Amino acid sequence: LHRIFDTDFAELSHHEDVGLLAFSPLAAGLLSGKYLGGTVPPGTRMSMQPDLNGRSNPQSQAALASYDAIARKHGLNLAQMAIAFCLTRPFMAAAIIGATDMAQLANNIAAADLQLSDEVLGDIGAVHRQFPVPM
Q: How much is the pTM?
């Protein structure tokens, strides 16, 4: 959701040969899919911080719905698509994932083997152009 590195630091990263360690590639759980449609499961971060420290707002929710539509269109898991997208970036050293249970961890790790098609990447790019800074 927050791709400011792409626009502001990617060139510097390339010239200085310094990669990005992407922290929270699932945007504090927004891209996990668990908050889609206004759902807020008990015990989740959003149940304790309703706006996820500014990450959840009308614009980020609209972007999230668009990214979810891409995942569904291509038969992908939203969280895996988000992590796999991070790993396509040329400056990415690693995507630091988090999980609250083993199922989430297994789901997130599976993204390492996911190759996104040019069509998926194009769809992601279109949403980014529509919502360049959603939070």
A: 0.92
